[in-house]
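Q: Convert this sequence to structure tokens.
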Amino acid sequence: MNKERVWNRIIIPLLENLVAPYSVVRRIYVQIILLGVAVLINAVVFITYQHLDWISAIYAGVNVVTTVGLYSPNIYQMPSNEKIILTLTIILAVGLYTSIVQSIIATLISRSTWNDVKARWRGKHMKGHTILIGNGSELLSAVRRLNRLSIDYIVLTTSKDIADKIKGDNVILGDPKDDNTLLSAGVKEAKNAIVMLEDDMEALLVTLKLQKLNPPLQVIVAIRDDSLRDLFNTAGADLVISREDIIGRIAASAAVSTNIAGLIFPERSGDMIIGIFHVTKKRRIKDLPDGVVPLAIIRGNRIDPFFTKETELNIGEQLVVLGNPSTFREVKELLE
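A:
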């Protein structure tokens, strides 16, 4: 296990459970300050009119704010001014205290708020992770695959429904166009960012933001309108994946051959497809047509990437190849 994984998987989970509660407190610190001010006002009143020392006065002030009533001066001996001031502070303090208690309880029992705080702290401190940015169902599929591959990631989404489905403390519910939100996702120390937004123009703005905050960051963007590919490349995207192009290529390739197993992104390979063929006729690797590259031989449950041109393909084996789908018919006739 490398240093980044130890940090992300062991150290951060230990630390965040200590830091997250303080993050919640920071969200309500204004109310806590107001509560302290209310206690202080009451303490000053008791010092002025009851001649208490500071410790006793603070104790009495807390009693007033919490309405516990453990300290109560003789009302008949209290000056009128003290009665008026104390009455006003009691009314204000009780209302303030009730509001603070309700806010604290609502914040602490709200699991989504708690997880969001932890996710923001985790994202800021993670290293070498992947940032997933999106608001569609494909985001859920990407999360499932990253979990299977044990890849460290932070999800940034505007969809509460998506956030609720993913759950966990690595989901940030926020606007990916906001610099602070991207920084909370750990854009400075991330390995790469994958943008899968429904709106291409919004995805373009996020791409520009990512490049501004961390120029070396690898940015992968999935777009709907293939005509915008060059625009995204200019904006700094390292890889642009067109949804319509992928679906079109798979559909067209499947029409040519039923042996399609995958595709290579066109920016890096041209129109290249991965195919798998079941061997029903004994052949040698050298018999394959030009333009078809053998990648591996599947023998039972074992993948064998080591072979030569003279290697014989036996009946029952499978051959994984890379090539233009137009050549797959010839391969199929040769092997099947």
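The chain has a mean pLDDT of 83.
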